[in-house]
Amino acid sequence: MNNYDNLASYSKEELIRLIEIYSKNWLAMDGVWFQSVERKYGMDEAMYHDAEAWKRFTVTEATRIKEFLGLEEQAGLAGLAKALSLRFYANINEDKTEIEGNTLLYTSVNCRVQRARERKGMPFHPCKSVGLIEYSGFAKVIDRRITCECVSCYPDITDVSCCCKWKFTITEE
Q: Does the pLDDT value for residue 3 go beyond 70?
């Protein structure tokens, strides 16, 4: 049996559950390598490698999602909202997206990374700097006119009602 036949033998509900498992596995792998570097070389070294990985991965992820959705070259904020909803994170984190005028506000209400570190008694992941790389790079692939800024993200929390919040703005040319 080839892989397609194997996957085709599962129900829609089972496949959705499998996507959630795959998403959790991906996030676990991301955390395992990060914590390994963090333990051996410290947070600064781990953050350097995290940033380098996200510079490349976010482009790959956005490109594949954009192709899957069949988005046009300048997909706008509606295209970005659709693409954000299909990221690995979207399957396992609680988030919300709001579009108003030329801005999209993306809020991670509950983040598995921060909750896992909290459960383990570890300090929060200082994800703002990497988040800027990740979200800006992702948005640029979806539509080069979109810019991203951080509204609230550890260590610069300005909104305690969520884990992080990002503002995407589109400028017309």
A: yes
